[in-house]
Specification:
The chain is mostly helical and about 170 residues long. It has helices at about 15-25, 50-65, 70-80, 85-100, 105-115, 120-135, 140-150, 155-165; strands at about 1-5, 35. The chain is globular, with a radius of gyration of 18 Å.
Length: about 170
C-alpha cells in the first residue's frame, strides 16, 4: 500500500516515487497490485490547469522509468477511465497488457474499457485473444460473461455462463 504519493518536482517527490516503484518491482513474490490512498500528484484541486498537467506529466514520466511493471500503467489507465479519456485509458491498458501478456485481469480491464468507450471491434478482438490465451480457465468464462453483460450483450453473457456448466470454477 502506497499512500499520499504527492508527486511533484519540489522536494524530489517524483524520485522517491520512482524508488518506491522499483522496490515493489523487486519484491518476491511480486504483488498483484499496488493499492494507493490519498493523492497521486500534489494538490491538483487547488492548482491551475497548467500545473495539474505538469504534475500528471511528471507522474507519467516516473512510470516510464519502471518499464517492466504493468502496475503503474493500470493505475493511470483507471484515472483516464474515470475521466472518460478513452485514448489515454486505451494506451495505458494496452501498455500494461504488453508488459503482462499472461495476466487475465489486465485483459479483462482492457476489454471492459473498450466496451465502455464503444470500441466494438477492439472489444471483440480482445475477447478472441482472451479465448485463445485462457481457453480452459473457468474464471475467464465468468469474467467474459460479466463483460458481455455490462456491454449490453445479454445473449453473449448467457452463452458464457452456460460454458461454465460442467466446469468446476475455482472462484
Amino acid at each position: 500500500h502506497l499512500t499520499d504519493i504527492h508527486v511533484q518536482r519540489e522536494r524530489d517527490a517524483h524520485q522517491g516515487f520512482a524508488a518506491a516503484l522499483k522496490a515493489v518491482e523487486s519484491l518476491k513474490p511480486r504483488p498483484d497490485f499496488i493499492m494507493t490512498g490519498g493523492d497521486l500528484v500534489f494538490d491538483v484541486l487547488e492548482a491551475s490547469p497548467a500545473r495539474a498537467r505538469e504534475l500528471f506529466t511528471l507522474y507519467k514520466k516516473v512510470i516510464e522509468l519502471t518499464p517492466k511493471s504493468a502496475l503503474p500503467y493500470i493505475m493511470t489507465a483507471r484515472i483516464y477511465r474515470a475521466a472518460r479519456d478513452c485514448a489515454g485509458m486505451t494506451a495505458d491498458y494496452e501498455q500494461a497488457r504488453d508488459l503482462e501478456p499472461d495476466d487475465m485481469a489486465v485483459h479483462v480491464e482492457l476489454a471492459n474499457g473498450y466496451a465502455e468507450c464503444g470500441f466494438d471491434r477492439l472489444f471483440a478482438e480482445e475477447l478472441k485473444e482472451m479465448d485463445r490465451k485462457f481457453p480452459h480457465d473457468a474464471g475467464y468464462y465468468h469474467n467474459i460473461g460479466v463483460l458481455r453483460r455490462d456491454a449490453g450483450d445479454v445473449p453473449g453473457a448467457v452463452e458464457m455462463q452456460s460454458s461454465l456448466e460442467g466446469r468446476k470454477p475455482e472462484f
